[in-house]
Design brief:
By secondary structure, the protein is an alpha/beta fold. The chain is built from 9 helices and 12 strands. Helices cover 33% and strands 22% of the residues. A 5-stranded mixed β-sheet has the order 4-3-5-12-6. GO terms for molecular function: DNA binding; DNA-binding transcription factor activity. InterPro entries: LysR_HTH_N, LysR_subst-bd, WH-like_DNA-bd_sf, WH_DNA-bd_sf. Pfam families: HTH_1 (PF00126), LysR_substrate (PF03466).
């Protein structure tokens, strides 16, 4: 490591006792180093004919609302056409982290809400809208709106006295939903706070309290007897992909092109909960993206 620092003419680590932390120069080298290693593995996979060759790998970071639905559909289409590739997906903490995640090489593609509200830092990123989703208040079976299916839309202020299963505070709300909640100023009643979306749905179905769900999970919950009410003012939220075309590897560019083809091939919007068949419908493209191959 000392030899590398001498060759580069920069200190890469702060050495403190038995530990080390990256300097600003080290952080600057981290992204390019990860990209070099990634492209080296991909080059080895491309020329190796042996049975033990390493599979091409694509790293994706995704916000929770993007995981179930549009992202799953484009990943499935990509893997059908490229079965030798392995896709690794980890959670993106917030849309503000998108630029740092791409710059550090932690992921080459981020699945997030669009448009990105991250200032000029996001201007260099290419984006591809994949689909939209709404937010529903899901009540336990036998509670909430009278009868099965949908009740009338409910505003955030009307949730003041509705016990809810909530997620811990975290910066993953869309700008639109955050604005609605901030402007309405309700005091949401948290009967339980859990970190996993699957647990929120399960606990709601057990009758613990209502919860907030996106379109896909709301449709699944409705099939198990939940009663839904659309959350007024929080509709048509867009999810999509973002990547840096200047640093994207061949596999990342191939994925972006595949996602664009899948999005434009499926122009129909998913049916809302209550009218969709099991499994939901296809994603709805939200616009014309930058050329995914550039």
């Amino acid at each position: 490591m000392h030899a590398l620092e001498k060759e580069l003419g920069a200190v890469l680590f702060h050495r403190t006792g038995r530990g080390m932390t990256l300097t600003s120069a080290g952080h600057g080298l981290l992204g390019p180093a990860r990209r070099i290693l990634r492209e080296t593995r991909q080059a080895e996979a491309a020329v190796s004919a042996g049975p033990r060759r390493s599979a091409p790998r694509l790293d994706i970071a995704a916000l929770p609302p993007a995981l179930n639905g549009p992202l799953a559909e484009v990943v499935a289409a990509f893997l059908r056409a490229n079965p030798e590739t392995v896709v690794h997906v980890h959670e993106l903490g917030s849309e503000q982290e998108a630029v740092d995640v791409l710059a550090s090489g932690t992921a080459e593609i981020v699945a997030t809400r669009l448009p990105l509200d991250i200032g000029h830092a996001g201007d260099r990123l290419a984006t591809l809208p994949l689909g939209t989703y709404d937010v529903y208040v899901a009540h336990p079976p036998g509670a909430g709106p009278a009868g099965a299916g949908h009740g009338p839309p409910i505003g955030v202020t009307e949730l003041r006295d509705v016990p809810l299963v909530l997620m811990p505070p975290r910066p993953t709300l869309s700008a639109g939903m955050a604005a609605v909640i901030e402007e309405s100023g309700p005091h949401l009643v948290g009967r339980a706070v859990v970190g996993q979306q699957e647990t929120r749905t399960a606990w709601m179905l057990e009758g613990i309290a209502a919860t907030l769900l996106g379109s896909r999970r709301a449709a699944e919950a409705e099939r198990h007897g939940a009663r839904l009410a659309p959350l007024r003012g929080v509709t048509g939220l867009t999810v999509g992909l973002a990547w840096d075309p200047r640093t994207a590897s061949p596999v990342a560019r191939l994925f972006a092109a595949s996602a664009y083809a899948e999005a434009t091939r499926s122009p129909a919007a998913p049916a809302p909960p209550g009218s969709a068949p099991p499994g939901g419908g296809p994603a709805r493209p939200g616009g014309t993206p930058a050329d995914p191959g550039t």
